[in-house]
Amino acid sequence: MPKRPFAMSGSAWLTFCCALSLAGASLFAPAMGQAKAVLPPRPAPCPERWLGLLGKYGQPGNDKSDFLIREDGGRLQTYDSMPGDLREAGKDSFHFEGSGKGRKAVFLRDSLGGGGACIIDGVPFARKYYPGERARPPKPTVDMPLDSLWAEARRARPPAEKGKFAKPDLVDVRQYDPGVRLALAYSSPRNSYGFALYDRDAALLQRPAAQALARANRWLGERGFALQISDAYRPWHVTKFLHLSANPTMRRFVASPQAGSHHNRGTAVDATLFDLSTGREADVGHLGGELSERAHSFFPGGTALQRWHRLVLRTALERQGFRGLRKEWWHYRHISRERYPISNMPISQAVK
Question: Which pTM value belongs to this model?
Fold first, then answer.
C-alpha cells in the first residue's frame, strides 16, 4: 500500500498535538504548546491535465472495489484497494510502476472533461462522484417555509445545565489580531437559508480561545497564510434553528440543541486557510456544504498540495490548544481549563 500523505497516522498526530500544554492566559506569554513545528516542504501543484482524473472509482454496487486516484509527489497513484504508482505513458494512459509495460490504466473522460471511468488491465471502474463534483451539494433544509421554524427557535430556551461554570468572557477575535479574516456565512443572507442568522458580522470566542487563535494566526503569517473564520460563537437559538430546519440527512451532522455545541459555549471555531500570496482561500480539495469523506480531516485523496494545506491549518491550531474533528477538517474547539456555559446572547449584545 502506498505511503500515507503524512508521516504520522491521524490518531497519532492528534494525540501528539493534544498532549502539548494548553496556551497560557496571556497572548504574549510563551506556551509549551508552542514547541517548534516542522512542516514538510510545500508540494508543487498537481499538473493541470490530471486534476479532472482525481477522485473515487469503483464498480457499481460494489463498494469494496472502490479506490482513489490521487496525486502525490508529482505522480498519480491508485490508493486503497488497488495501490500503485502510475507512470504517464500517453494521453490519459498510464503504466503501473514496476510492472514494465504490463499493468495499464486508461482513463475515459466524461462530458465535462473529467475522468468518467478508469480501465485497469481491461477491467472498467466507473467514477463515483462526490456531492458537488458535477452539481451543487444537496439542499440542507427541509422543504417548508423557514420563517416559522426561525420564530420557533427564537422562542425556545436553552437547556438547564448543572455544575460549576466559568464566567463567560466573549471577545472579538480580531481584538488580538486584526489580520484574522472573516467570512461569516450566518451574518449574511447569502447562505442556505436566505436570511442572516446573526445580527452582527463579528466572530467571538472566549478570551483564552481568542488569544490562542491570534497566536496561531501569527504563526501562519510567518509562513504566508492567515486564518479565515466562517463561524465562531453561535447563539443557542441558531443551533436550535439549524436542527429544526435540517433535512434528515443533514440532521445527523447538526449538534443537538439539547446538549448544545462548543460553538454555543464560545470555544469552537470553523476555519480555513487563506493564502496571502494569491489573495484567495487555499485549496483544500473540498466544497463547503459537502458532507462526504472528502470532509474528513485526514482524507487521503486529492493532491499533495491540498493535503498539505490541511496539515498547515491543523498544525497552526493544534499547537495552540485546539482540537479538530475527524469528520470535519474545518472545525476546531479550544481545550480550555475553564468550563463555559451555553449562551443564547445575540452577537450584538455579546460584543465588547
Answer: 0.86
Residue 1 lies in a domain: no
Task: For residue 200, give Cα distances in angstroms to 150, 174, 189, 284.
Answer: 17, 14, 12, 28
Range 3-10 contact pairs with CB under 8 angstroms and sequence separation of 24 or more:
4/300, 5/72, 5/298, 5/300, 5/304, 5/307, 6/298, 6/307, 6/311, 7/40, 10/297, 10/298, 10/326
CA-CA-CA-CA torsion sign (141, 147, 152, 158): positive
Same-domain status, 121 and 55:
yes
What does the chain come to in residues? 352
Give the closest residue to 313 by CA, choosing from 223, 232, 202. 223
Separation CA 286–CA 55 (nearest Å): 12
On whether residue 186 sits in a domain, the answer given is: yes
The C-alpha cell of 164 is what?
460549576
Helices (H), the chain: 10-19, 48-51, 147-155, 207-221, 236-245, 248-251, 262-265, 304-318, 347-350
Measure the CA–CA gap between 237 and 45, rounded to whole angstroms: 43
Cα–Cα distance, 215 to 24 (Å, whole number): 11
Q: 5 lies in a domain? A: no
pLDDT at 3 over 50: no
Q: What would the pLDDT profile of 172-216 be if each residue is shown by its tens digit?
A: 999 999 999 999 989 999 988 999 999 999 999 999 999 999 999
Q: Cα separations (Å) of 352 from 58, 170, 171, 272, 322?
A: 53, 8, 6, 25, 23
Residue found by looking up cell 498537481 in the block: 46
Cβ count within 10 A of residue 33: 21
| Cell 445580527 -> residue | 199
3-class SS of residue 244: helix
| CATH number of the domain residue 100 falls in | 2.40.128.50
Least confident range of 17-31, 85-99, 266-280: 17-31
Q: Write the DSSP assignment of 289-310 as a string of letters.
A: T--SGGGSTT---S-HHHHHHH
